[in-house]
Structures are given as C-alpha cells and as structure tokens.
Amino acid sequence: MIFLLILWAALSIFGFVVEGLFWLAIVGLVLFVITGIFGWLRRGASTRT
Predict the structure, then answer these.
(1) Residues contacting residue 35 through CB under 8 Å, at least 6 positions apart
(2) What digits encode the pLDDT tens for the residues 14-47?
(3) Is 1 helix (H, G, I), strand (E, B) or coil?
(4) What is the pTM of this model?
(5) Which of 5, 25, 29, 40 has a Cα-to-Cα distance from 16 of 20 to 30 A?
(6) Of 47, 49, 5, 1, nearest in space to 29 by CA
C-alpha cells in the first residue's frame, strides 16, 4: 500500500514538472487519494474486529 502511494505521488510530481503531461498529474493525484482512502478504510475495518 505504501509503495502505491509513493508511486502515485511520483507520477503526480512528474506530471506537474513536464507541462505536457498535466493529465498524468491529475491521474496520479486521483489514484493517490483513492489508495489513501482505501488503506484508511481497510485499517479502520481491521481495528474494529
């Protein structure tokens, strides 16, 4: 899970650096947020049981 967060963050930074790849930054940010929410929900579910 941590690896995915790092990967999405790197893609986002790369997309912002290369102006022509702005769409890559948006995709990276969206995937970063989705992965973070998924990990948070998964962690919360494991502490309840």
Answers:
(1) 1, 4, 5, 8
(2) 877 877 777 877 888 888 889 889 988 888 777 6
(3) coil
(4) 0.60
(5) 40
(6) 5
Query: Are the beta carbons of 6 and 31 closer than 8 angstroms?
Result: no
Euclidean distance between CA atoms 7 and 12, whole angstroms: 9
**Model confidence at 11: pLDDT above 70:** yes
Contact between residue 14 and residue 21 where contact means Cβ atoms under 8 Å apart = yes
Answer whether 2's CB lies under 8 Å from 22's CB.
no
Nearest in space to 25 (alpha carbons), one of 38, 40, 12: 12
Q: Model confidence at 49, in pLDDT bands (50, 70, 90)?
A: low
Alpha carbon of residue 13 to chain centroid: 11
